[in-house]
Design a protein that fits this description.
- This protein is of the alpha/beta class and about 290 residues long.
- Helices cover about 35% and strands about 25% of the residues.
- Helix 6 (about 185-200) packs across helix 8 (about 245-260).
- The chain is globular.
- The relative contact order is 0.14.
- The model has no long low-confidence stretch (mean pLDDT about 95).
- It binds guanosine-5'-triphosphate and magnesium ion.
- Magnesium ion (MG) binds near residues 18, 30, 38, 39 and 58.
């Protein structure tokens, strides 16, 4: 018998969804930072076994959208509700509820299996954990409850095994050697965006989009040229920094990650461009793969 299905990870921003997906996959597929709204897309990560295929979806954290980009991000979350065979609802220690009531009701009334994962228990103590466990079991009685630490791996294998059990009988949906649905350029954009989230403050990371214009793979090296887009001229100066030092740091760190990811030497060229108010522009959003409307 062969099993296969969609296992979609949803929850509030910053609870550790991407960390869990990467732990399941054993690769750094999704970028991770301590800032909310790190993930902007629905990213598939596929785990293949001889007799199963688990198609995980990492999704953006649930928020009330304030501009078009965020509305598109929530459309990815909606789609993840629609095709799930197993829902993984992740919360973190100290958190009380999902910010969007409609989404929360979908979880509570779900007809498919729901696993409620209480993450970051490494930051907790026994007493707090028990109190939280009770809170969530009362709030989402239809879910199977697991305390985990995605970062330290606690209970991750048990949850993985349970998900395999819950997968429906089905042939594989993707070739058995496929790891993700996203092209190489997507991971280049993300690696660069991760460094921007890490090194710039306030609104800057949220005003940035990265677009990889060239990706040439030669025998021993990959030559990449990417553009970092910002919404305003002042942001451009901040990204570049004094004598280009800030941009240089982004380039060096992203290149190192990409060399690890692709297992090959990388030459990365970065430049910065203003793309006025791209976050609110339907056409631009479509161009960057956010909006399918
Ligand atoms: N202590 C602790 N930190 C964790 C754990 N899992 C994730 N984190 C940290 O929590 C932060 C957010 O992790 P992400 O995996 O990016 O969270 P996310 O839910 O994907 O966030 P968004 O994409 O912004 O919605 C990072 O700093 C992680 O290192 C955990 O089990 N324990
Ligand atoms: Mg994420």
């Amino acid at each position: 018998m062969h099993k296969a299905g969609f296992v979609n990870i949803i929850g509030n921003p910053n609870v550790g969804k991407s960390t869990l997906m990467n732990a399941f996959i054993g690769e750094k597929l999704s970028i991770i930072t301590s800032k909310a709204q790190t993930t902007r897309h629905r990213i598939l990560g596929i785990v293949n076994g001889d007799d199963f295929q688990m198609i995980l979806s990492d999704t953006p954290g649930i928020i009330k959208p304030a501009y078009e980009l965020q509305a598109s991000m929530m459309d990815f979350v909606k789609s993840a509700f629609e095709d799930a065979d197993v829902l993984v609802y992740m919360v973190e220690i100290g958190e009380k509820e999902l910010k969007d009531e409609a989404f929360f009701n979908k979880i509570k009334n779900s007809k498919i299996p729901v696993l409620l994962l209480l993450n970051k228990i490494d930051k907790s103590n026994q007493e707090l954990m028990e109190e939280q466990a009770q809170h969530w079991q009362e709030k989402v009685p239809n879910a199977e409850f697991y305390p985990i630490s995605a970062l330290q791996g606690f209970n991750v294998q048990n949850v993985f095994n349970r998900i395999v059990e819950l997968l429906p009988e089905s042939p594989a949906f993707y070739p058995k050697d496929q790891l993700t649905d996203k092209p190489e350029r997507f991971f280049v954009n993300e690696a660069i965006r991760e460094k921007i989230l890490l090194h710039y403050k306030k609104e800057i990371p949220y005003a940035v989009e990265v677009d990889t214009e060239e990706f040439f793979e030669e025998e021993t090296i990959i030559r990449i040229r990417s553009v970092i887009m910002v919404e305003r001229e002042t942001q451009k100066g901040i990204i570049i920094g004094h004598k280009g030092s800030a941009l240089k740091r982004v380039g060096i760190e992203a290149r190192k990650d990409l060399e690890k990811f692709f297992g090959k030497q990388v030459h990365l060229e970065l430049y910065v461009k203003v793309n006025k108010n791209w976050r609110s522009n339907q056409k631009q959003l479509r161009r960057f793969g956010y909006n399918n409307k």
